[in-house]
Amino acid sequence: MNKKILEQGLLALLLMVVLVAPLVAYPIFLMKLLCFALFASAFNLLIGFGGLLSFGHAAFFGSAGYVTGHLLSVVGLPTELGIVLGVAAAALLGLVIGALAIRRQGIYFSMITLALAQMVYFVALRSPLTHGEDGLQGVPRGRLFGMLDLTNDLAMYYLVLAIAVAGFALVNRTVHSPFGQVLKAIKENEARAISLGYDVDRYKLLAFVLSAALAGLAGATKTVVLGFATLTDVHWTMSGLVVLMTLVGGMGTMAGPIIGAFLVIALENKLGEIGAWLAETLGIAWFATLGDSVGMVIGLIFIICVLSFRRGIVGELGALIKLR
Question: What is the pTM of this model?
């Protein structure tokens, strides 16, 4: 069994689980997991296969959420059109930021993406369209194509699942296309790719825009699901969170970012319940305070992964099985 078979097996298992999951788990929580899994996969396309570390992906995630939320709640556009225009806004922003950032490499590229994303954050903070610190509230879900009522959580869940699966499929197809192979070649040895005649900047810019559009799709969908868009979505900590998800799950693998996103979001939302269960089961009162220390627990997991599992969960599992 090789890494590719392992990844496909994990993805098939995940697909079966998510199809029946809303029957046994809270659909809103599951939809949030799917949105962040798509966000992490979009980020992984850029860093895992293109070698470009962006510290500003929250700008695309959050701006698409704001655009979609404004179009649905103020302009009154249909849900599907609001999401499409949100994705288009993220792609356009990605084109502008990417065109400026790819002129530099390494840490300079990362710092430019961070600086430009912070500019987006301050625009969101000051703009009356975003309602500043209050954020956009009460974004309606509406009806899909005027027929399917999305206020039903189960209907909304399967729409989000379809969007997420389509996004994962697009990432997978891109990675295994000739474009993806050139992207990997640029990551491995950019100078050699240039010597072979490839327009490296054009490839990197296309990858950046595609990644930004997919991150925007995740952000727009999250706004429709939860009914709000806030400054947290465009803050630099959101960019750090998606880096964490990707590294913990396994950078450069298809399933890794999905598993990383599930792990981080589940810990953020369920650590309090896990701590209460441990306190009751083991009789140790300290565990009941775990819910107040989410950041510390996630930080410890990140440190353990960096020190012991440098290839992430999926990367290490793949390497272990390959050795056997």
Answer: 0.89
